[in-house]
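Late entry, written up from scratch paper. The run itself happened at the end of the previous shift, but nothing got recorded in the book at the time, so transcribing now.
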Amino acid sequence: MSHPTALIAEDETVLRDELRSHLAALWPELRIVGEASNGFEALQLLDRQTPDLVFLDIQMPGLTGLDVARQIAGRCHVVFVTAYDAHAVAAFEQGAVDYVLKPYSVERLALAVSRVRQRLSSAPAALDGVLRELAAAAPARKHLRWINASKGQDVTLITVDEVLYFQSDTKYTRVVTATGEALIRTPLKELQEELDPACFWPIHRSTIVNANAIAGVTRDFRGRVLVKLKARSETLPVSDAHTQLFRQM
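Output as recorded:
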């Protein structure tokens, strides 16, 4: 029988290393096939590796663990990793989905491992009920609402709803709207953590696009996916790692 495989999705390096170490001791047969530090990385790895199990941190930058879980429901077993307080833990007590509280308790992790090992031979549990309760218990996230950007010698206020896309440009990030563009010093990676992931999608390591600004997608003569915008003529290339966002388009 082949060894079971797992992915760890946890944004804190120390906790990720600690979880990997505990799992190696508690479940030597388990192969860790990937580690992600945010929700977008987790989705990419899940598509590439198709693990049996994911240890999924609920609160990660970009896409949260709840966002990831909604997209992977039914594809693999899930053990949520959470720092939520006790009242939120009730969401897991139906038993079909397990959890581990931070900071990690080896005893609690051992219990989660024991439960999930018993479930590996069956189909992954439905997550709908758990996700609804966790979303209700989650602290509200405050996303970026406006940006102070430079246009020549002037500094202008741009609401994020106006932005069609952000793009890395040497030391700056370009902020592109329907009527023009401006520059900010905030790195794209840092900006991504402040934007609403439901609206702003990374489509390339250098580009984040406003989903509401997308008119459609096309392919060039090489077969590469390109995003077409509603309010501008240029197209934006989509890297292979992000093409899954447009499978339904």
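The chain has two domains: 5-137, 146-246.
(Scratch paper discarded after transcription.)
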